[in-house]
Design brief:
Radius of gyration: 17 Å
Distance between the termini: 47 Å
CATH topology: Rossmann fold
Number of helices: 5
Number of strands: 9
CATH class: Alpha Beta
Shape: globular
Helix content: 25-40%
Number of domains: 1
Strand content: 25-35%
Length: 197
Amino acid sequence: MADTLIFVDGENLSIRYQEMIKAGRVPAPDNIVIENCFVWNPRILLDASWDIKRLAYYTSVVGDDKKISAVREKISSIFFSCQSGAGDHTRTTTGQFVPFVRKKSSRSKKESVCDIAIAVDVMRECYRDHADTIWVFSGDGDFIQLFQEVVHSGKRAYASALSSGLNSEIRFVVDEFRLLDKYFFVEEPASSTGSTV
């Protein structure tokens, strides 16, 4: 598998995750959550073979420098697991989340500070030729042009997002798209009484 750099729009992911819970979805019991700024499920990277060089997690919090430092410390203490290699040589490897935590002014609104940081870092990595695949976790339509630039730079572009707030155009500008709902939420059981009208 080609070298892959992952950029997670944690601000977007956290907001969409909370929206889906409010709408009635049941969170998976193995989710890792830091209130209002971080959500991850350890199964996300285990269903395929990846050669991940780095997983950068971008988020924002309301609070002072001490709060930002505490969140950064918590995120950096979380490790992801992934499959690497192929065939008989497949092995599970782990890596540390690299946290990029910004200050925001309000709990309720999404600010573009994380989006800008992700865009700058993705383009920097593309032009420095540090990876073959760029994988962005966000359903935000603001990233459509970024995905197009990644493809034009000769890199493979992957995207993953929750269904809440997903801009459907993203599916058409990347090499591969993965919906995250099955990782973060318990599948809703089929009704035993039949469908309702």
